Amino acid sequence: MTLPFQHLTSTKQLSRDDTDAILRVAKEMEVVLRSGGDDRLKGKILASLFYEPSTRTRLSFEAAMHRLGGDVVTADGFQFSSLYKGESIEDTIMVVGQYADIICMRHPDAGSADKAASVSPVPFVNAGDGPSQHPTQALLDLYTIQKEHGQIDGLHITMVGDLRYGRTVHSLSFLLGLYKNVSFTLVSPKELTMPQKVTSFFTEKGLKYEEVEEIEEGLHADVVYMTRVQKERFADHSEYERLKLKYVLTTKHLEGKDCIVMHPLPRVGEIDTAVDHLPKAAYFRQAHNGVVTRMALLSMLLGAAK
Ligand code: CP
Q1: What would the mean pLDDT of 162-182 be, rounded to a whole number?
Q2: 268 phi and psi angles, rounded to 5 deg
Q3: Owning domain of residue 150
Q4: Best of 60, 265, 267, 288 for a ligand 1 pocket test (most atoms within 8 Å of beta carbon)
Q5: Measuring CA to CA, which residue among 43, 69, 63 is closest to residue 104?
Q6: Taking a C-beta distance cutoff of 8 angstroms, is the pair 293, 136 a contact?
Q7: Ligand 1 centre distance from Cα of residue 137 (Å)
Q8: 2 found inside a domain
Q9: Residues 72 and 83 reside in one and the same domain
Q10: Residue 265 Cα: closest atom of ligand 1
Q11: I need a surface site. Which of 43, 67, 260, 297 has the fewest CB within 10 A?
């Protein structure tokens, strides 16, 4: 099973057929993972380039490659790469493409993934480009919603927090637009509302959405998707300090509610740790799903999905 593209930079390039195929292969990868992995990517190398901090995305990409028998070469931090000396992203990617069979890259600049993909001689995957997109996170989020609820069509999704800079909610919104009758409650302070590129997309697709400021207005949902206020995107630190804990989800908020709680993580206080003990807390299961989703994507982009 293959995908009709070589590079993945944005969820806007995915069709419903693509997401159906990726979710199907991810489910198959659960079985592969439970049996300890296989060697379908033996002899293949993933270049893992992280020019911005990451725990989950980087380690789950690398674990996924290892679980399928492949190898990983890695570069992290500007100061340890030739980008620090002034090398362009394009030159870096053209060179790394001589060493590896597939590249994933995280970079602080929006648009850096498109620059990389435009020259990459091997499949390229965006692992997060500044405040713009994080397509593999959105795929694992979609897989989580499907797994937890058994369906995606017709669900009501509440997104809470930094909807302006949170790239995961941008990417996930575009994917959810592929499904029928999905509706949204967008909870944010007015300084951090969802960008117009996303709300215009909802309008174009005829998807219902409401924008509110209080978390209590969004808890009547199937999914409550919490986000961290993105400290690294603020020029004014005092503005970050003012907004960072506007929303803190507690067990009290969830009493009598029939939703699952998701978060791309890391969290920095916006979900009280007491919530972790509730069955509806899905965020660590969500992190587990990152491995199988990335196993699916790596094998499909490298022509090794069975
Ligand atoms: N969810 C996510 O992208 O986490 P990391 O920043 O740790 O990769």
Answers
A1: 96
A2: -130, 50
A3: 135-286
A4: 265
A5: 63
A6: yes
A7: 8
A8: no
A9: yes
A10: 1
A11: 43
